[in-house]
Structure formats: structure tokens, C-alpha cells
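Possible regression after last week's pipeline update?

I re-ran a chain I had predicted before the update to compare outputs. Posting the input and the new output here so someone can diff against the archived version. Not blocking, just want to make sure nothing changed silently.
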Amino acid sequence: MRRWLVGLLVIGVLGGLIALAAISTLLGGVGSGDFMFGAPCGSVLATTDPREAPRVAVRVSDLDAEQRAIVEQIIAIGKQRRLPPRAWQIAIQAGMTESRLHNLPYGDRDSLGIFQMRPSQGWGSVAQVTDPVYEINKFYDKLLMVPGWENQRPGDSAQAIERSAFPARYHQWEPLAVNVIGTVGGDVTEYVKASCTTPLPAPSEVAGRAIQYALGEVGKPYVWGATGPNAYDCSGLMLRSYQSAGVTLPRVAAQQYWAGTQLPVRQAQPGDLLFWGYDTSNPDTIHHVAMYLGNGRMVEAANQTVPLRQRAVNFDEHELMPLAVRPGVPVAKA
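New output (post-update):
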């Protein structure tokens, strides 16, 4: 009897080690705590802490004609100057913070224009600091003088130029800036340096547990509005998977999009959430969420016609949102 019990114990331990090895392989080493992966220098960087979300969420589709025109000028001038998308992002976040991307004829003391430049502080004449082409070029001139601007959080670079009494307020516009660039920026690859990398937030240590839970539910039925344990809808599966790992998510997919660190979808890591929307420039239209597993695979509760499943995913899929979300991960500090 004793030998039999020892044999069962050995088998159990080996089984556990095999399971852990499988998850470790799936994660590709994720979960060490100090694991980092890189984004090309100058690429857009969305590492927004949910606590910094704007009080009133602004989507690309909410921009008025003047805001849209100013964004297009920021990007066009950035391209003319061969500046990378990170520079455009910094300008968009600064403009959104200072003037809501309007060319204002007024401001605090003598502050004017998109970036609230002050003639009395040497930014230019009144006519110049209310001329969008001059303003944008002047902002870029100042940006190029900020040490390390390509490698730090965009809002920190905006603060270095604007010198606001409220330095953290620039960060809240990261998702909007990234979505704007994704919508109107066109192909940005030629403007991004591929020879260096900057750190992005490490995948969460809880990702492995969330993945393990989700994979354990594969085969169960899809039921709209269900959150387990016998059936799930798409967001219900994500909710319970991360709940099993100690992370609380909102109930519906559109809210889950704002419930963690955002990053470019092509840099998604195992455990990150992928989203689909009818309008990829407007997160309000999100209708589906799934969990990325790595190596072009994901797990999802798709619809009533199929049970919970794994399937292949392509980052060029129709309606796939430009940002993935990493639940439970704080913002990486520059």
C-alpha cells in the first residue's frame, strides 16, 4: 500500500511539473517579474493606467472638424520633418491637454493657440503662436531639445515642454493619441527606428493563472450574459479567468478595454486581451473580447454556434482594435 501511495505521489508531482512547464512554454518565460519586451524607438506608446483615464472619455469619432484638421497637420508636419510617431503622439497629447486641440485666441495670461504658447516667454509673436504651422513646428523644435524624449513616456516629454503645474494630466490622452495616429497616420513604419528598443510593461505574473483557467473552460457552451461556471459569454470568460488570478475586471467587453495597461496589439503577449469593434477608431463599438495565448493563438467564447474554443488569430483581422490590454499591470515608469 505504501509503495502504491508513493507511486501516486510521484505521478502527481510529475503531472504538476508537466503542467507548469506547459504554461511556462506558452508564456515564453513571462512572469519572472523583471521580464521586459521592446518597442522600436519612436513608436507610439500606450501604457495608460486606468486611474488616469479622462473623466469624459473622448474617442476619435468625437473629434470636431478643427480638432481633426489640427491632428492631421501635426502628423503631416511630423512626417515632413522625418520625426517618428512618438513625436506626433507627444504633440497630440500636449495639444489635447492645453487646448483640446483648438487654436484658441485666449488663455491664461498671454497663452495662446494649440499649445498655449506665451509671446512674453519667447515663443513668438501673437501672429506666430496662433498660426498652426508655426505652432506645430515650434513645438517640435522644443521637443527635439528634450533629453531622452524618444525613450520616455510621451506625457513626460509633453510636460518637459509645457512645464505645467499638473504634470500627470498629459498621460490621460495616451489612448486617444494612439487611436488617432492609427486612424489618420497611415503607414508609420518608415518613420520608426528599428535599431533600438524602449521598455514596455512586463506581462503580468497572473497571466499564467488566467490562461490556465480559460483553457480549462474550453468546450463549455456559450450563453449570452453568462459568467460561469457552466457557460460563458466572451467578457464573462475574461472576467472569471482574471478573477481566478486575483484581478477584478468590469463585466462587459467595452469596459474591459479600459481596465489595464494598453499596448499596440501587434505586441500582445500571452494573457493580454484582444478586442473587436464595429469601428476600430471608436472603443464604444467594441463587441467582442478574447485572450491572447501567444504564437498566433487565442481562447474565446465566440457565439452560440460554437463552444468555448482555441483558435488562430491574425493581427490584420477585420474589426480587431489597434490596442491590446494587459489586466492588472501598473504603468511602467520611465
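Follow-up from reviewer: compared with the archived run. Strands lie at 37-40, 197-200, 261-264, 273-277, 286-294, 297-300, 309-312, 323-326. Marking as no regression found.
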